[in-house]
Prior knowledge:
The structure holds two protein chains of two kinds. Chain A is mostly helical. In chain A, about 90% of the residues lie in helices and about 0% in strands. In chain A, helix 1 (about 1-20) crosses helix 2 and helix 3 runs parallel beside helix 5. Chain A is rod-shaped, with a radius of gyration of 39 Å. By secondary structure, chain B is α+β, with helices and mostly antiparallel strands. A four-stranded mixed β-sheet of chain B has the order 3-2-1-4, covered by helices on one side. In chain B, a hairpin with a 3-residue loop joins strand 1 and strand 2. The relative contact order of chain B is 0.23. The interface of A and B includes residues 1, 33, 34, 37 and 157 of A.
Amino acid sequence: MISARSRGLMAAKMSMKGTAARMGVMKRVSLVFKAKANKALDKMEDPRETLDYSYQRQLELLTKVRRGVADVATSRKRVELQMNQLQQQSNKLEDQARKALGMGREDLARGALERKASAQGQLNDLQVQYAQLQGEEEKLTVASQRLQAKVDAFRTRKETIKATYTAAEAQTRINEAFTGISEEMGDVGMAIQRAEDKTAQMQARAGAIDELMASGALDDAVGGQRDDIQSELDMMSASSDVENELSRLKGEITAAAPKQLEGGANGNSQGAQAPQAGAQAPQGPAQPASIPAADRPAEPQDGEG
Amino acid sequence: MIVRISGEGQFSIDDAATAELNRLDSELEAAVNRNDEAAFTAALHGLLDQVRARGSALAADTLEPSDLILPPEDASMDEVREMLTEEGLIPG
């Protein structure tokens, strides 16, 4: 390896090609890493110049890997948010199914449960993605800590070399430190790249789920008009409220009627009483005129809503 | 001998383990050449497990270059092929 390094990039590439068949994957990967390091080393006139240049690049990479950690964390949080939304949706749909069954509407309950299954499927998919992003985040965090430790060690080594050695003497020591740190930098750079690729894939999928939720395919009561299950349930419970109200009103009327009849029987108004009670339905069209105070303010509101 | 598992860190391994590592590495390469993803994954995991079991992790602040470098645990065969090219996965 040392000979390959001193012969530079071309030598490393040639030896890589020439002996690939009996070298195996491990050796070839490490040769590629070393070829990259050599390429950078060969550019430098004064070896000590390499130290400062490399140190700057190390600091840049540290910033980049920390940004990478933050980016993956952002994606993870977005997936988490979607998971919460889907869970709420799923709970709501189950609730709707329960209500529908309670009202004897098995068809509605089935519809709600079908949507719940779809939401649950998305949720399972997101859980896998969440775990992957968490894994990437941990890996990058550890990688940034390791790089930080190496950058600190490199800085110390760099100052020692600059203070103690002549350019000629420094060469070997610089090569050692430089090769070690470039390997780490190559590795961290690759880890960032892989994390970015994975995050991009997941963002695309997260976007697709956002669209799916916006389309109303998994919708619940919040979706308003789109949610036919909820509106039918609302209608049913509203109409049952109306029925309850009706029977309450009927109850009041039948409770009051005997007294009025009694009073009528005692007085002279018998003739007027009977038509009034019997004519309630026929008199319907005239009602708006007779009950204006209570009903009129409410009607325009219904119309607007 | 120092071996790096990409994305994981460096390990110091006794030279006595070299034969076994080379055997597993040959399996890995054969799998890549056969284009056999399942065999590739099995060989890669076998190789990494061996390094972890027989090696001791180097301190994070070491600047020692590695003698051998292994692909990350979750690498696909295509990624490893790319790692083996100059323009491949390794930046710089």
